[in-house]
Specification:
This protein is 19% helix and 31% strand. By secondary structure, the chain is α+β, with helices and mostly antiparallel strands. It has one domain: Nucleoside Triphosphate Pyrophosphohydrolase, CATH 3.90.79. A hairpin with an 8-residue loop joins β2 and β3.
């Protein structure tokens, strides 16, 4: 049973400005539905959001992440064309080189100035909100 979805975002204060995104194919939704997305997935029944974030990051990037803080929750019903999902974004750190696994075809590190295209769902907004937070300390407002 799925309760909610989550995503992970890069750590605030990371002087290298790196983060990981994933390549995956939508199983439903728009035609051709390939694009880059932040690592994420669904919470299993009886699982905490934090445990799901760590598990999904490992499944999709092969990295052990350490959660630093909860960033923001995104709940616009139109954010995922397949169905209504709610994403709680975590700021996390990890060591190593990401490897795509599970439903991620590839995992790769990008800088803020060299984002891939296309980025799917509302992940461009999440990234924009994160970079504003990193530069100013201001979080998104509901």
């Amino acid at each position: 049973m799925s309760l909610a979805s989550y995503q992970t975002a890069p750590p605030r204060g990371n002087t290298v400005n790196l983060f990981c995104t994933l390549r995956f194919a939508w199983s439903q939704g728009r035609e051709g539905g390939h694009g880059w997305a932040l690592p994420g997935g669904f919470v299993d029944y009886g699982e905490s959001l934090e445990a799901a974030a760590v598990r999904e990051a490992k499944e999709e990037t092969s990295l052990e992440v350490q959660l630093i803080e909860q960033f923001y929750t995104y709940s616009d019903p139109s954010r995922d064309p397949r169905k209504h999902t709610i994403s709680t974004v975590y700021i996390a750190t990890a060591q190593g080189i990401p490897q795509g696994a599970d439903d991620a075809k590839r995992a790769k590190i990008f800088t803020k100035d060299q984002l891939p295209n296309p980025i799917v769902f509302d992940h461009p907004r999440i990234l924009s909100d994160y970079f504003v937070y990193k530069a100013t300390g201001r979080r998104p407002k509901p």
